[in-house]
UniProtKB/TrEMBL annotation:
SUPFAM superfamilies: NAD(P)-binding Rossmann-fold domains. This is 3-oxoacyl-[acyl-carrier protein] reductase. InterPro entries: KR_dom, NAD(P)-bd_dom_sf, Sc_DH/Rdtase_CS, SDR, SDR_fam. It comes from Paraburkholderia unamae. PANTHER family: 3-OXOACYL-(ACYL-CARRIER-PROTEIN) REDUCTASE (PTHR42879), 3-OXOACYL-[ACYL-CARRIER-PROTEIN] REDUCTASE FABG (PTHR42879:SF2). Belongs to the short-chain dehydrogenases/reductases (SDR) family. Signal peptide: none annotated.
């Protein structure tokens, strides 16, 4: 489990889509920093349980909460479960996402709508749900997982581009309105991280085109998340974690 000098021992964190990949790495890193962590998942219960076991084995505290975070009533139930099980949510990481690869001639309206619901609407729903408590305590950290596709052509499709660009707009909008209340809102924008989502792209020789010559690791994204969680003067920013594939 990663180690950290950041002390979150009095904080509760919720990470959406945390049963695998980048979300899993973020949940483990927050737990290593001392936070009690709610591990959200939609389908992969056994993998979420493995994350809990890792956290527990290191002496941490965590619960798993199933919810489709693109559905309002499921988000409400999830927040209630987290608050009952761990306490008020101080750190929200909106990581849940979908990256269905579709060219413009294949993309359907249903796929476009689903991508925006999972990648963008979910962040809105979860943020709105945790804000009352954060504002009352005048402390909060919200981190949205964007992508290099928000500002570039990308390899997934225009639906993905739109969802991530919207997420960065949402980030800046909330940051501008919440900064004086002790709440920071930032985005972390990975690209070509070695996860299940990127596996179909490995055959496209993407590694050879990257300045660092390799795919990124989920832990490297988690490090960036912890950086903005630990800094009260960074807000409204997008932190690129992409091996130099694009420059923001």
């Amino acid at each position: 489990m990663p180690t950290s000098t950041l002390d979150l021992s009095q904080r509760v964190a919720l990470v959406t889509g945390a049963s695998r990949g980048i979300g899993r790495a973020i949940a483990l890193s927050l737990a290593a920093a001392g936070a009690a962590v709610a591990v959200n998942y939609r389908q992969r219960e056994s993998e979420a349980d493995e994350v809990l076991a890792r956290i527990a084995s290191a002496g941490g505290r965590a619960i798993a909460v199933r919810a489709d975070v693109s559905v309002a009533h499921e988000v409400e139930a999830m927040i209630d479960a987290v608050q009952s099980g761990l306490g008020a949510i101080d750190v929200l990481v909106n990581n849940a996402g979908t990256g269905l690869i579709r060219d413009i001639d294949e993309l359907t309206e249903a796929e476009f709508d689903r991508t925006l619901a999972v990648n963008l609407k979910s962040a809105f729903l979860c943020t709105q749900a945790v804000l009352p408590g954060m504002r009352a305590r005048r402390w909060g950290r919200i981190v949205n997982l964007s992508s290099a596709a928000a500002r570039g052509g990308g390899l997934v499709g225009v639906h993905y581009n739109a969802s991530k660009a919207g997420l960065e707009g949402l980030t800046r909008g909330y940051a501008a309105r919440l900064g004086r209340e002790g709440i920071t809102v930032n985005a972390v924008a990975p690209a070509l991280i070695d996860t299940e989502m990127v596996a179909p792209l490995k055959a496209a020789n993407v590694v050879e085109r990257m300045p660092v010559g390799r795919l990124g690791e989920p832990d490297e994204v988690a490090q960036a998340v912890l950086t903005v969680v630990g800094n009260a003067f960074i807000t409204g920013q997008t932190i690129a974690v992409n091996g130099g594939v694009t420059f923001i």
